[in-house]
Amino acid sequence: MNQKPYPVHGAGLGLRREIMHSLADPFPTQVNFLEVAPENWMGVGGAYGKLFRSYTEQHDFVCHGLSLSIGSPAPLDEAFLHKLKSFLKQHNIRCYSEHLSYCSDDGHLYDLMPIPFTEEAVHYVAERIKRVQDILEQPIAMENVSYYAAPGKQMEEIDFLNAVLDEANCQLLLDVNNIYVNSINHRYDPYEFLNAIPGDRISYIHVAGHYDEAEDLRVDTHGADVIDPVWALLDKSYELYGVIPTLLERDFNIPPIPELLQEVDSIHEIQHRWTEQNDSEHDVNAQRG
Questions:
Q1: pLDDT per residue as tens digits for the range 178-234
Q2: What domains can you pick out in the chain, each with its CATH number?
Q3: 68 in helix, strand or coil?
C-alpha cells in the first residue's frame, strides 16, 4: 500500500505541563512527536516559555486547537488567527487541527457543542474553514468529535463530516475513540463509519480513553486507559488506510511516565505489525511482477 506524506510519523503524545520535566529526563525514544493546544502556549514567557521553546527546537510538534469555534454563529476571530499563524511558524508546527464543533457565541461556552447536521451548516462551516486556511496559508485538519445530542439533525454524522471535508477541501484528524463513543451513544456501527471516511484526507489519528457513565452512555474524557474496542478500531484504520501517525491523548489522571509510555508502545506494536504485513505483501507482488 502506498503511503501518502504525513506531517509527522510514528507515535505521539500530548504534552501537558505537569509531565514536561519528567518527560525530558531522558526524553523517551518511542515518542516521535508531541501535541499541544496552541492557546495554552501563545504568549507564554518565563521559565515555561523557555522550556516549551527547547521542546519545539528538538522535537516534531502538531497543534490541536481549542477555541477556533468553527461552527459558531459569531464571526471568526481573525486577530487570533494571525497570532496563531505567527506561533505555528515560530515553533515549526507540522500540522494544525481543530474540532468540528463550536465553543463560543458572544462569549466562550467552555465546552464543545455539536454543529447541526444540516446542508446549511455544511456550507457555513466549509466557508469558515476555507477562510481559516487562507489566513494561515496552510491546510488544517478537522477532527470528528464526540457529541451527546444532535439538535436539528437532517443528515447522518458521517455524511455531514464527509460533506464538510469535501467542500472545504481540508484534512481530517481521525479520532477513533470518538467513533467508538459516538457509536455507543448514538447506536451505529463504528466499522461502517470508519469504512466511509476519506482515508486520503487523514493527517494523523487520535486514540484515547473515556468514561463509562452508563451501559448506553460513554463520555469522552481522555482520562483513562485506552480500551480494547478502541485499539481494535485503530488496528482496522491501519488495515484500511495504511500506517498513519497516531497520538495518545491523556489530559488528566495521568499515570507515571513508564505506564503512559506503555500505551505509546502499544501504538508502535500495531503500526509495526501492519508495516511488516504491508512490506511482505509488497515483496510478494514484486516477485509476481
A1: 999 999 989 999 999 999 999 999 999 999 998 667 677 777 787 789 999 999 999
A2: 11-288 (3.20.20.150)
A3: coil
